[in-house]
């Protein structure tokens, strides 16, 4: 019996089926079967071309999605069923990830539904993150009754994000094969004994252009109310799910009423039906929300169609007036700032003024910080000013001269500074004066595609203005590089006339200048007892995820690694809002959340080993010549959605784990630091630690700020002549 049956079903008027089957055939899995309920002759022919990897169930033209779903499920033999509509898609690696997750459930016979995250595509966008990420991350990994996680009903009602146990399907087929797919999706959760979550994108919801669909009939509008009434019948006697469904019903009815553009008679009848349902189904004592939303609900319950329309018109007029006033104020303030900035541009450039910024004005960090520190030693007459967001200003080191964006002095220093240093880009409006010097330091060695190379990857390039990007790049005078790989990729991703400084990353100097005292001090600050092994887990950002979700069960990993190991967990800085998913683990003392700890170089010095996925921290950490382990559970998805410059699976800096079980085995044996791991790390260091030797900041300062020629700079030491900072084991 296969672990998983992928049941591809339903009509496919836009010819998406071929691509879906091609992707499944490219990565066949022994534990997975593919059943295609092919509607129509051409779909049957497309499926039969993949007969080696799928079972074809031919169905006549006109067969609906629900009937096709049932026909496919009837032929499926897997323990779990994943229904995939023929017009939708599956991210690469999904069947494997789902099958492994279901097989690893502690008691799969009491789990009925595995709830997946998904990405969304339309006719003009591709693979955008869904809003379901945070609630799925909040749900955790332990299977629980829906009554304990009623908020999961707020996830998108897509049957493709509900992987159902085959026995559960057979027991409830009359509900789950309903032609109203959102009803079936909600019913799957309501009827499940236990629900588990897989917080990773494992389904692609593809929405056709609305203009290509048939017009929505009045009866289809009214069916929305009927759907929720049927669902509320299923949830009767269960207060938490019932309350969530009631709120969803009222919300969706009001949104449909306001946005659907229904003819007046249809709108009046829809409002009447929604009003009756809102009154009849309202839970006893259920509070209305405050503010305008509460007013809307009151008017709906009263059936006050005319007053609702008047309220709607008044709100629209009020928003228009407020928007006009706010826009006027913003425009006036922007004009004043621009006037002051333009006036400052007429003053002479100040040759002893340098402006620094890092990570979109987050504070003193990364390569700019290392350069500024060395600048203070080699050229103390040059005055550094940091650009920092108002919220981050309080965290600056004492005595740091800084400006906040939008203030008067901000425009003045940007206009007059001789040197502008950043590890990202300055805003588009910053003018490149002929006698000013712009230094781009970057903030990592590129594994993922960057700059213009993101163009073929919609999930990565969404919202990017590539013409504006190139205009910013044209302002660069110098680009810092840590290795020849980076130099080549920067040339390709950011084509312009800048000069490459093949001097190494200044932030990595500390990996050669720090001694035993510095390593001990960092470990003491972090609370790592002498003799304990510290493993730094530092995953990267994913463009297809809305929020950070640990891809490992950290509590279980800590237990398996034992009392003598401490996990230092650092989330990517893009995920610095909202509650941390690590909150409940901090009390153990063996999982330490270091997401807010700066600088990250300290964490690397403190760690005996690094576990990461695709983060550029691996290239920096390799300078320490300490063990590196790659956890790549979604490599195929990452590679396909973000794009990469080389195959990390073939050129990894150490052992590669594709599952948590594999990672645990590596870390609980000698595989993390054996001869094979050392050989892989040595090859990786030769390739990517090419220019880092402890004197990168000095070379950059002498070249850019002091104007010294390349031959007069300190030469880069050969790799075999460098001595990294001592490891914790060496100083124990």
Automatic annotation (TrEMBL):
Region called Disordered, residue ranges: 712-732
Chief location of this protein within or outside the cell: membrane
Keywords linked to the UniProt accession: Cell membrane, Membrane, Teichoic acid biosynthesis, Transferase
Membrane topology: Peripheral membrane protein
Keyword Nucleotidyltransferase appears in the UniProt entry: no
Single GO molecular function: CDP-glycerol glycerophosphotransferase activity
GO biological process: teichoic acid biosynthetic process
Subcellular location(s) of the protein: Cell membrane
Entry similarity comment: Belongs to the CDP-glycerol glycerophosphotransferase family.
Designated name of the protein: Transferase
Organism name: Streptomyces griseoviridis
